[in-house]
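Components:
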Amino acid sequence: MKKKHSLLLIISLFSLFAQAKITISGFVSDSKTQEVLIGAYVINLETGTGTTTNNYGYYSLVCENEAILQFSYVGYQKHTQTIATKSDTIINIALSESNSIDEVVVKAQKRSSFNTSTLSIKELNSIPSLGAKPDVVKTMQLLPGIQGQSEGSSLLIVRGGNPGDNLFLLDKVPLIYVNHLGGFFSVFNPDMINSISVYKGGFPAEYGGKISSVVDISQRRGNADSLKGTFSIGLTDASLTLEGRLGKKATFILAGRKTMIDPLFYGLTSALKDNEFRMFYGFHDVNAKFSWQPNAKNSLFFNVYQGDDYLYHESKQGHYAIDEETRSINIWGNSLASAGWNYTASPKVLLENNISYTRYRLKDKQSISDTSEFDKISQYLSSVEDASLRSVINYQLLKWWNMKAGVQPSLYIHTPYSFYYTANDTIRDISQVLAGQTATFIENKIKFLKNSEVNLGGRYVNYFASDFQHSWFEPRFNLIAGINANNKINLSYMQVKQNTHLLHSSGAIMNNEVWIPATKEIPLAESWQGTIGWMSSFVDNMYSTEVNLYYKEMCNLATYKEGFVNLKGDVDWAQRIETGGKGLSYGLEFMLKKEYGDWTGSLSYTWSKTTRQFDEINNGKEYTYEYDRPHSLSLMINHKLGKKWDFNLTWVYQTGLPYTPVLGRHYTPSLNLDYQNDNIWDFDPTGEEFYYEALIYGKRNSARMSDYHRLDIGFNYTTTTKKLKRKAIWSFSVYNMYNRQNPSYYYYNNNETGEIHRPELNNGFKPLSMYQMSLFPIIPSVSYKLFFHKGDNKKPFIKRFEGLLFYD
Amino acid sequence: MYKFIIFLSVLYCLGSCRKKVTDTFPYFDKATTLNAILQADSLVKVHVSYTDQLSDDTLQYAENARVSLFVNDTLAEILAYDSLGYFTSNTSVLVNTKIKCEVETYNNGLTSATCFIPNPDSLLKITVTENAWTNRDGRASPAVQFSLINHFNEIKYYELRVKVYEGHSTYMETFNFSEEISLLLLSNQHETDSVISKYLEFELFSFGSNAHCAYLFELRTVSESYYVYANSLKLYEQGRYPTFDMGTIVPHSLYTNVNNGYGIFAGYSTYYTEKIQPQ
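Structure:
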């Protein structure tokens, strides 16, 4: 009875509070293009309290019946709105782009984003890159706590995690494979991107499923003002983007990229090898998004993505008077389709719903035919399919309490290994695991005092794979305490589990990523992470700085057993997996950023230490993680040189990667296996073994390669074409400006030509030295980007396209 | 396929660079290396040498070492130096004996190692099927099915080898063992049945057909040190060189059972089948 009364009292109090306040919510967008503005500030000028828009441009703020709200966003004019209403109201705001540099200044409160880095497309475009084209993942690698796997790689190592421990979300839908060209480029087309948020720790309860990071990428909706597009071409690829309005309430954006080197490769190899051998490599990706907002309360969108890399070769050769023709194609990439519906049920409630399907596959198809009777086709396939639903409710319960809750059921089909062969017989080996997961989460963002808030929540997850079932709870806690308007401190804690493991071999530069599910034999990877941080802004918010200290433990990590680098050839693939690995990572991250002015830029520094331990690797002893880099520093500078030119510079310094050093040499017996040519072993049961010089290795990963550093510079020249007066941008960049030979890996040989001397073939002694392989010398690049839009004259293509769409 | 790999490697090299690393290597104390793979019923032959840093010089043989051989903990013989680092004996190794070797050198003191020569086990049954499966290149390939008694009271280690008679040529082949790694190695550690039965598909690397081949199998019953070393040798060779398509494999150290030194001191006994014509 007493409890009942207490409950009634609490509800009554809440009601009293609620009656005294109203909730203002809505979307903030660009007045011209109607593109939503993510991370825009909404400030109650009378109380100083405020909020920021989410990935849909949505905000919700509780204020007095009469209040003055200010809406602002970098690069846009501020908008002030006087509120005088007695009930909850939806107010959609359209901000106008600023023409004046001064108006860019946003001097309102800084968005508190500990453990989170946000990037806008503007920042993305201002960083010099390989090929003079911006790359999302490469840009992330400049942030503190985030490193690339190796030079050129788009795989991310976040706070000592594995490359497969990062969740990439494209409009809230997971994308499994994120690389092109073996990692030299990422699959994210910059023309499609609205904003990027990278969570390195302190995940909100909304996110889970990967133990190291969440990269949440929001795509643009397309320009609602007019039909427009861009075309760009660089050394690596050409891309085309079209966007516009369909009717009065719908927009679309369509973008595609394709390498241009494929035919060049094919022709060159054909000429070099006298038509006996041809090959090409290429990639493409296509993104399409259709958005429809039938009224102020509802918005729907449909996304499609398809991207592949492919490596093709064909050869003709003769064996024993038989001419044999071999064709081989390797294809790897993702396909994704999703639909979403956002419904503003009331000024206090926003519902987000998504349905999605993603598939990653790695396929190696080979066909051989010869002039005898022999014809065969074989195919190796490894794939992952993910079909998910996601339903989330955002509820502004009270002025100080915002609640978010949701459910996400997912179904996975894992095919780690599948082999198909047909000739005289047909053989099909397939190993498939059906798995599923239902994640339910709740997070409560509670504001207290003037500048403080706590986000308290958790995820309850139920996972199954074949006959294995497991449920668990992941607590999430994130406290931001405002010392004053410019200084904040942060404490966060999170636990996460991961139901898949990415198998990859270090240094592999081509397709070699295989995903396996957690099963009874291969447990779910787990991690917990705690962070302490401090954030400050000063000189009128011109400068901001952030320091984070993190400690992260991981367990049940999986990798290949020693000696294995793939699952090919073994339907019982699980026997090649080493499980139960432990990982530890801790470090200090520092970032200083100059937010506005003629010169902008940032300085990031990370000190960290990361280790691994597996029972069956390195004799069970802990060792330095393959990608451990204790010191990592990056400097980015941007400067506007007048109206047409801007300049950007990036300098990166990192401690060299660890490697296992050779201490010395000793003789070792061949075990009577006498290699001859073509791997044919000559065996004589009564013969003598021979001795050859073998290397004595030191402790695993106990030495360091030379430090990595590199300077990239870039210039962008914005101009208009002479005849059609279209906007165009020339981008010039020089990667590795001072031609630093950074080591990719070390190896031991007797010469530097790359021809390997193999003493185990009993071919005698040759003195060995250590050599390094470097990948990228100085690489100058240029790209050209042309903008066109409906206002242009003399554009037959656009006119035809408009006709096709019945554009009004 | 290998041409393709080579071609890719050339392309790779065009945009890459190799250079000698002139870092100072960590200091490494010279030590004695003691090696021997002892075969039952054969003369003892021990290889003794010194380790060294990476340098332009070949490794030195320990010509002046004093090499003592113990059988079941009793000094049996002081071995005489032969040539090329070999110390030989007039004593044959007997099965079911414990062999110990001690090497004394001027600089490195006493180095020693011990191994046990196991009794040979025989195969209960063995059959070869000529066209049992098709490999990834579409070639019909043979398989072997064999069985042997499982000695529950002791951990046993085996190595199976085959000699293939194809016309005038003979080849040594590898198997896809369903053990942890693809070696010709087997242990009864996890076998629960009284008879160990295995079915192994293997490949012939020759380009010709495997029709009308004949097979001679050797079952080696090996010491534990042999088994561990053979596994480590396979991993060592895999991690020794970077490869273009698979990336770098973390180097793996060779197993050693030598006290105060390096090397492997192991032994085995053998059982041979008749020459088998496949079914």
